[in-house]
Specification:
Helices cover 59% and strands 3% of the residues. The chain is mainly alpha-helical.
């Protein structure tokens, strides 16, 4: 039985119009196949997932001890060039704590101490 959405009267299953008020009956079709999702949404979701994976991968790479060492050396050299010897020493000491056997950090520390006189 179909129920009329206007007057709520019961109508036979095959009816196209309500037998009480005469208005067209809404037919609900159930398809066995699903409609495809919005392709733009799928592409956006995929792009977002790739971007997140790339960001996570980069942050993991960026936090390796070697990378942190290189960053501290670079910052130490930058501050040395700007004659900010305290900051230069601070960053070079952080680099030294990461890799105390690397000669590069000691060479840069010598430059800091020589520049200070």
């Amino acid at each position: 039985m179909k129920k009329c959405s206007s007057c709520k009267a019961d109508n036979p299953d095959g009816a196209k119009f309500c037998r009480k008020c005469g208005k067209p009956l809404k037919t609900v079709s159930y398809s066995s196949t699903k409609k495809p999702k919005n392709k733009k949404a799928i592409y956006k979701g995929t792009a977002l997932a790739i971007a997140l994976a790339g960001g996570i991968g980069f942050s993991l790479y960026d936090n390796t001890p070697e990378r942190q060492y290189q960053k501290n050396i670079a910052m130490g050299e930058k501050y040395l060039e700007k004659y900010n010897f305290e900051k230069a020493e601070e960053y070079l000491m952080m680099a030294k704590s990461i890799d105390p056997k690397n000669e590069e950090v000691y060479e840069d520390l010598v430059k800091v101490y020589e520049a200070q006189g």
